[in-house]
Write a structure and sequence with these properties.
It is a single chain. By secondary structure, the chain is of the alpha/beta class. It has one domain: TIM Barrel, CATH 3.20.20. It contains 9 helices and 10 strands. The chain has an 8-stranded parallel barrel, surrounded by 5 helices. A two-stranded antiparallel ribbon has the order 8-9. The radius of gyration is 18 Å and the shape is globular.
Length: 305
């Protein structure tokens, strides 16, 4: 296998390709799960993505996690914030819960030494979109001010464009970033399915690079901090956030391959959020395809095609 940027401590050289993995049994388990699938990074939920209630991990949870991390073949961990958070809400109670939960998510990411916390920008819920963008930015700014600045950056993720969801267009993302005004604390996560579902054509040569440039214009370095790579279950412009396995949806392997090569050339990590079955067969198949699109031989753990 051609060597790429090293990602871990064991001398093994793997690209920063990974999966969203389960934390069942403890945070320390995520590294073994990732290594079994040739991951050079992983993404997790810090708690149930459909619950407001969770505790910031204490030493009993963190110590085994940090020990496992120090001995693993990779160290990069991304956290996806709760789906319940809506920083743009005009409901005072939802806004309060969202700010409290985001603060705890950022504190958790800092303690875990995560590489980033991924957050959906929020929803206008039928109200004026520009006011919703400014509400979200103001609240994010306030929460960032409550958490020490040496932790994980907050990565806003583009959305599929359904209904009142914010962030499907680069203009909205730029407005939010500029209003937050914390370039050292923020970044962007781009999702291929969301781009496609919101109407972007990824099939033409060079299209991915142009689209990425538009979304990243307002952020430092003008490149994503993370890619979510997924095929799309529904046609372009559907607005539906339904992921498919790589090459099993409407985007297809050639267009996804352009994004993969762009990410590798820019040294941007890629996490798959592709559908999972009862075992890990689908994860192995999708990881194998990811390596293939990057022009790399799949490691033995996932070499199934």
């Amino acid at each position: 296998m051609r060597k790429v940027a090293a990602s871990g401590r064991t001398g093994r050289s793997l690209p920063r390709f990974g999966l969203h993995v389960s934390t069942a049994g403890g945070l320390d388990r995520i590294f073994g799960r990732g290594e079994a699938l040739a991951c050079g990074t992983v993404q997790i939920f810090s708690h149930s993505s459909r619950s407001w209630e969770f505790a910031i991990p204490d030493a009993h949870v963190l110590d085994p996690y940090l020990r496992a991390r120090s001995g693993a073949s990779f160290s990069d961990v991304f956290i996806h914030a709760s789906y319940l958070i809506n920083m743009a809400s005009d409901d005072p109670e939802i806004a309060r819960k969202s700010m409290e939960t985001l603060e705890k998510e950022l504190a958790t990411a800092r303690l875990m030494q995560a590489k980033g916390l991924v957050l959906h920008p929020g929803s206008a819920r039928g109200g004026e979109r520009r006011k919703a963008c400014l509400r979200a930015a103001s609240r994010i700014q306030e929460v960032l001010d409550r958490v020490p600045g040496d932790g994980a950056p907050l990565l806003l993720e583009n959305t599929a464009g359904a209904g009142s969801m914010l962030g499907a267009r680069p203009e909205e993302m730029s407005e939010i970033y500029e209003a937050i005004g914390r370039p050292d604390r923020t970044g962007i996560c781009l999702d291929s399915c969301h781009l496609f579902a919101s109407g972007y054509d990824l099939s033409e040569e060079g299209a991915g690079e142009e689209i990425v440039a538009r979304f990243c214009e307002a952020i430092p370095g003008r490149r994503p901090s993370l890619w979510h790579l997924n095929d799309a279950l529904f046609p372009r412009g559907s607005g539906r956030d339904r992921h498919a396995g790589l090459g099993e949806g409407h985007i297809g392997l050639p267009a996804l391959g352009q994004l993969v090569r762009l990410a590798v050339a820019s040294d941007v990590p890629i996490v798959l959020e592709t559908p999972k079955g009862e075992g890990d067969e689908e994860d192995r198949r999708n990881m194998s395809r990811l390596f293939s699109m990057a022009g790399l031989s799949a490691p033995p753990e996932i070499a199934s095609e």
